[in-house]
Specification:
This protein is an alpha+beta fold. Helix content is about 50%, strand content about 15%. A hairpin with a 7-residue loop joins strand 3 and strand 4. The mean pLDDT is about 90. Bound molecules: adenosine-5'-diphosphate and magnesium ion.
Length: about 475
C-alpha cells in the first residue's frame, strides 16, 4: 500500500505526463494543420490561375501556361509544381514540362467527384520519388469539362513536421523532467514541514503543554492546520490548568475546615472543661462538619456532572411554581436578615428543563442574593417569556459584581471581591455548579449588574413551551 507522500507524487507525475503529452500532441497537430493548409492554399491558387488562363485560351489547343525558359521575370509560384490538364474521361490534354513523360494519377472515384463540380485534394505518399499532394479543380469552358491538376511535393512539409515532432517531443521530455523534479522538490519541502510539525507535536505532553508548534509562515492548508492544532493545545492547556487548580483548591478547601476542627478539638482536650464549654465546642465542630459535608456534596455533584453521570431529564415545568418552591426554601434565611423576596410573574410560563436541576440553580442564585444583599433589602425573582425563550432572573441590592470578577465568576472555587469585602462564607462552587448544570441542559446562566441601581442580576434562560 502506497503512503500519502508516494500517492501524492504518483498523482502529480501522472498529471504532469498527461498534461504535457496532450499539450505536445495538440501543438504538433495545430502546426501540421497550418503547414498543410499553406501548401493546399498555394496549390489551389496555382490551379485557379491555370483554370482562368484555360478559360481564356483556345480549348482545341489546351496547354499549360508556363513561360518559356529565360523569357519571364523570376517567379517561385511554379517552382516544384507539377501541372496537368485532363478531360472528363481523364485523358491527359497537357502537362507541364517538369512532368516529363510521367502523368499525375487519375482515379475513377476522383473523376466522379470532379463531375459533381467538387475540388478534390489527394495525398499520394508513393506516387513518385517524393510524396505528392494534388489538387484537382474542375473547369467548364464553352460547355466542355476540363480538370486542372496541380501537384506539389510533401517532402518539405513532412520534413518540417518531423523536425516539429522532434522539437515538441524534446520540449515535452524536458518539461516532464523539469515539472517532475520541481514537483518532487516541492513535495519534499512540504513533507519536510509536515514531518517537523509531527515531530514537534509528538514531543508535546502534559508536562510541556505550554509549548506551541512552529508556524511554517505560510497562509496555506499547512499553516491553518498548525493554527488549529495550536488553538487546540491552548484549550487543552487551559483545561489541564483548570483541572490542576481544581484539585489544589479542593484539597485546600477541605484541609482548612479539617485543621480548624482539629484545633478546636485539641483545645477542648487540653484541660477539663465544664459541660457548656464542651457543648459550644461540639456546636462549632458541627458547623464545620456541615460546611465540609455540603462542600463534599457539591464536589461530588460536579464530578458526576463532569462524568456525564447526572440524568438529564427535560420536563415541562411551571416556572412560577418552581420559583415559589425555591423562595419558600430560603424564606427563613432571608427573614433572619429582614430581607424580603418578591416574586414577579405577570403570566404563567412553562419551561423546558429538569425540575431538580432548575431548582438547584435557582436556590443557589437566591442564596447568593441573600448572602450579598444588605439587611432589610428586597430581592426580586422575575419569570418572563419572550419569543420562545423563558427567563428567570434574580435581582438584588448588594454590591453588584466587580468588572474584574465578571470573566471568572463561574470558575470553580472562584470567590469575588463581594465575598471578600463582606467576609461572607462560601466555597466558590455554587455558580460553577449552576453553570455546569445549565450547560448540560443547553441552557444559559448570565451575570450582570443592575442598570437602575446598585446590585447584581443573574438570569437563567432556556426554551419555553408555547
Ligand atoms: N448576588 C451576588 N452579588 C454579588 N456578587 C455575587 C453574587 N453572587 C455571586 N457573587 C460573586 O460570585 C462569587 C462566586 O459565587 P458562588 O460560586 O456562589 O460561590 P460562593 O457563594 O460560595 O462565594 C462570589 O464569591 C461572589 O464574589
Ligand atoms: Mg454561592
Amino acid at each position: 500500500m502506497l503512503g500519502f507522500r508516494q500517492r501524492m507524487l504518483l498523482v502529480h507525475l501522472v498529471a504532469v505526463v498527461v498534461i504535457v503529452s496532450c499539450a505536445a500532441a495538440a501543438g504538433w497537430w495545430l502546426l501540421s494543420q497550418s503547414v498543410r493548409g499553406q501548401l493546399d492554399a498555394a496549390l489551389l491558387a496555382l490551379a485557379e490561375t491555370e483554370s482562368g488562363l484555360l478559360a481564356e485560351g483556345d480549348i482545341d489547343a489546351v496547354r499549360i501556361h508556363e513561360p518559356k525558359a529565360g523569357s519571364a521575370p523570376p517567379s517561385l509560384v511554379r517552382l516544384d509544381r507539377l501541372i496537368q490538364i485532363i478531360d472528363e474521361q481523364g485523358a491527359v490534354l497537357a502537362r507541364s514540362n517538369n512532368l516529363g513523360v510521367a502523368q499525375l494519377p487519375v482515379s475513377p472515384a476522383m473523376l466522379a467527384q470532379l463531375a459533381n463540380g467538387q475540388t478534390v485534394f489527394q495525398t499520394f505518399p508513393h506516387a513518385s520519388e517524393e510524396p505528392l499532394r494534388i489538387v484537382s479543380v474542375p473547369v467548364v469552358v464553352q460547355g466542355k469539362r476540363f480538370t486542372v491538376q496541380v501537384a506539389g511535393s510533401l517532402d518539405d512539409v513532412n520534413r518540417i513536421l518531423q523536425s516539429a515532432a522532434l522539437l515538441f517531443g524534446g520540449l515535452a521530455v524536458a518539461l516532464l523532467l523539469g515539472l517532475s523534479l520541481a514537483g518532487t522538490a516541492l513535495t519534499r519541502t512540504l513533507f519536510r514541514t509536515v514531518d517537523r510539525v509531527t515531530a514537534q507535536a509528538r514531543r508535546i505532553g502534559d508536562d510541556n503543554l505550554s509549548e506551541r508548534l512552529a508556524h511554517p509562515g505560510s497562509d496555506d492548508e499547512l499553516g491553518h492546520l498548525v493554527d488549529t492544532l495550536n488553538s487546540m493545545l491552548e484549550r487543552l492547556e487551559r483545561a489541564f490548568e483548570l483541572q490542576r487548580n481544581f484539585t489544589a483548591n479542593a484539597s485546600h478547601e477541605i484541609r482548612s475546615p479539617l485543621s480548624r476542627l482539629r484545633t478546636e478539638i485539641e483545645l477542648a482536650l487540653r484541660r477539663p472543661r465544664d459541660a457548656a464549654a464542651y457543648v459550644a465546642t461540639l456546636h462549632s465542630c458541627l458547623d464545620e462538619v456541615e460546611r465540609l459535608t455540603s462542600m463534599v456534596d457539591e464536589l461530588l455533584l460536579l464530578a458526576r456532572l463532569d462524568a456525564g453521570q447526572e440524568a438529564i431529564a427535560v420536563e415541562i415545568i411551571p416556572l412560577d411554581q418552581l420559583a415559589r418552591d425555591c423562595i419558600a426554601k430560603l424564606q427563613a434565611a432571608a427573614g433572619e436578615r429582614g430581607i424580603a423576596i418578591e416574586l414577579d410573574t405577570p403570566a404563567p410560563v412553562l419551561g423546558r428543563i429538569g425540575y431538580c436541576a432548575a431548582s438547584l440553580v435557582l436556590t443557589n442564585l437566591i442564596d447568593n442574593a441573600i448572602k450579598f444583599s444588605p439587611a432589610s433589602s428586597t430581592i426580586r425573582v422575575a419569570v418572563r417569556e419572550y419569543a420562545g425563550l423563558a427567563t428567570i432572573s434574580v435581582t438584588d441590592s448588594g454590591p453588584g459584581i466587580a468588572a474584574a470578577d465578571l470573566p471568572n465568576l463561574f470558575d470553580r472555587f472562584y470567590r469575588g471581591s463581594a465575598s471578600q469585602a463582606g467576609e461572607i462564607s462560601g466555597a466558590g462552587l455554587g455558580l460553577a455548579i449552576s453553570r455546569t448544570v445549565m450547560n448540560s441542559y443547553g441552557a444559559r446562566i448570565d451575570a450582570a449588574n443592575r442598570t437602575d441601581a446598585q446590585g447584581a442580576v443573574f438570569t437563567l434562560s432556556f426554551s419555553a413551551k408555547d
